[in-house]
Amino acid sequence: MVHPVDAHVGRKVREIRLLRGLTQANVAEQLGLSFQQLQKYETGHNRVSASRMYEIAQLLGVEPAYFFEGYEENTAVKPNQLDERTARAAKALSSITDDAVRAQIQTMIMELAEREKEGS
What we know:
It is a single chain. 66% of the residues lie in helices and 0% in strands. It is globular, with a radius of gyration of 14 Å. It is mostly helical and 120 residues long. α1 (4-19) packs across α3 and α2 (24-31) packs across α3 (35-43). It has six helices and no strands. The chain has helices at 4-19, 24-31, 35-43, 50-60, 81-94, 99-119. It has one domain (4-119): lambda repressor-like DNA-binding domains (434 Repressor (Amino-terminal Domain)). One of its GO terms (molecular function) is DNA binding. Pfam families: HTH_3 (PF01381). One of its GO terms (cellular component) is cytosol. This is XRE family transcriptional regulator.
């Protein structure tokens, strides 16, 4: 059975990976993992150790605490509508061939998310 915290951490790993326009294979290779192992992290079927979480955070340019943002005690694991929208947006972003334009959009998204977080 998947623990809600593990599922949440996995969703956050997937979310930031997609926002960065990276595939599971890209990230797994850079971490020295199989893409299947990363997939298990993202679904919460395998727990992410503290050291691995730190490595993932460093690679994806976030603080380890990012993976716990938005988690509320006693929340049920359920399909997340945001994940589907995020996946579509990331797919569209990754189809942009101009690296400079893609980087600007990624920066804008991260800045807007930070402003939103600060305003909460």
